[in-house]
């Protein structure tokens, strides 16, 4: 059996990585307006899904900028996050813990749009 302390360290490292990634996505400073960030692995399948999703989000909320991979993405990741002007963030979708099969990692664009509407209203 693995020691219990390792899991906690891994979770702390994951939280620190997420915070670091969000700071890089913000350019190291606060955002003036809400922004949607899509982080996806650079393989072709992930890219196609990210393009379809970003297009759906731009159609639904044209006033919100959509950034795709503002920082180096993690391997196997597919996440959609809403960064608010006050510095907080809301996760609209994460596919990191989903799958196999791989198709479970990708949301239907309408699901993410509905989640975005909840946070904007």
Automatic annotation (TrEMBL):
What role does this protein play? May be involved in a redox-related process.
GO CC annotation terms, alphabetical: Golgi apparatus
Q: Where is this region: Disordered?
A: 1-29
Query: What Pfam families does the record point to?
Result: Rdx (PF10262)
Q: To which protein family does this belong?
A: Belongs to the SelWTH family.
What InterPro entries does the record tag this protein with? Answer: Selenoprotein_Rdx-typ (IPR011893), SelWTH-like (IPR052674), Thioredoxin-like_sf (IPR036249)
This chain's protein is named Selenoprotein H
Q: Which residues cross the membrane?
A: none
Q: Which UniProt keywords apply?
A: Acetylation, Redox-active center, Selenocysteine
